[in-house]
Amino acid sequence: VFYSCHKPSCPKCFRSWMSRESKIAEARLLEAEKFFGKAEHIIASVPIERYGLSFESIRALTVKALRSRGVIGGCLIFHGFRYNQRQFWYWSPHFHVLGFIEGGYKCRSCVKKFCSECHGFEAHTRECFRRDGFIVKVAVDNKGRGVAGERWSVFATIKYQLSHSSIR
Which of 32, 45, 106, 142 is the S-S candidate for 135 at Cβ 3.0 to 4.6 Å? Predict the structure, then answer.
């Protein structure tokens, strides 16, 4: 019989923790999809001048930035570090969000993705960036095309993001 402590910090139990939390979050998001449309994988990067704030402050500012861009509800997963090409970890707080965009994400098939003429998510998030400094974008596909990809599995996306998230 294997007993689990269910702690994300445990080197033996973190895999079962990831799976359990992913299943719970997936169930909630799939139920919410019935009302808000497809859940999108969104990345919200904190401006450099806010790196020194507490986690609670960073999270509150990120939620405010997401709301101003029309992101409603979802699951926030904190990542404190990024990895650069020189194989060096550095502090760069950001959140991966599986959430819903008001009116849906219409920019995926738009030929003028980065224009400011429309009222789509991409144009709106660029306007908001000038005001608050937060970089918010829909995650690109994993096929290397650099386009906003449709996530193929809520469970797999959450589990992958939890596998390298930052915890206290």
Answer: 45
CB atoms inside a 10 Å sphere around CB 51 = 12
Residue whose structure tokens are 């650099």: 146
- The type of residue at 15 is R
Residue identified by tokens 């979050």 is 25
Q: Which of 30, 32, 40 is nearest to 108 (CA)?
A: 40
Query: Each residue of 68-106: pLDDT tens digit?
Result: 999 998 899 999 998 887 768 889 999 999 999 988 777
Residue among 13, 35, 11, 31 at smallest CA distance from 23: 31
pLDDT tens digits along 17-38 = 999 999 999 999 999 999 998 8
Q: Are 132 and 49 in contact (CB under 8 A)?
A: no
Task: Give the tens place of pLDDT for each residue, 113-127.
Answer: 556 666 778 888 888
d(Cα 19, Cα 159) in Å, to the nearest integer? 6
How far is Cα 95 from Cα 78, in angstroms, rounded to an integer? 5
Please check whether residue 69 is in contact with residue 128, taking contact to mean a CB–CB distance below 8 angstroms.
yes
Tokens (6 digits) for 60? 């509150």
Q: Is 75 helix (H, G, I), strand (E, B) or coil?
A: strand
Are the beta carbons of 21 and 158 closer than 8 angstroms? yes
